[in-house]
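Bump. Still looking for Histone-lysine N-methyltransferase H3 lysine-9 specific SUVH4-like protein structure tokens.
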Amino acid sequence: DRLIEAKDVVFECGPNCGCDPGCVNRTSQRGLRYRLEVFRTAKKGWAVRSWDFIPSGAPICEYTGVLGRADDVDSVLENNYIFEIDCLQTIKGLGVRERRSQNVAYAANLLDNYDGQDSEAPEFCIDAGSTGNIARFINHCCEPNLFVQCVLSTHHDLRLARVMLFAADNIPPLQ
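Sorry for the wait, here they are.
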């Protein structure tokens, strides 16, 4: 029920799978499990903290907003809520790393479908500037206690993976 380390992509059971919603391979699809609070800080504006202890590897929430093409985002406006979906670039970087699981090998094979797209920039992004969820208030930190994970469950299009946030460490209450 937890993800101990970040993977290039996580494949979960989806609507075409015969398992029930309680399947252990639907970890990120169970919604919020911790009491999270948006609060105002003295120096960083809005932030998020948990009222509960969160164990390392636990899924926190999905980064949601308006899905759009990265080329369509207005770069003139400062929007700190844009999250580029860059799973393809992550997997392309696997060449020198050991491939330890079938999922990673399968993800690498999916790249064959995108060979014509050698662009360095991600094709899609999530804009949480005007609409989104609690994830848009999570601040960047030099020593992060969360990690980003690309997750696929309803399709296998790496360009449109769900962006999930997981606990990188044990997170005590009110941190």
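Residues 10-32+54-130+143-167 form a domain with the Beta-clip-like fold (CATH 2.170.270.10).

Edit: fixed formatting.
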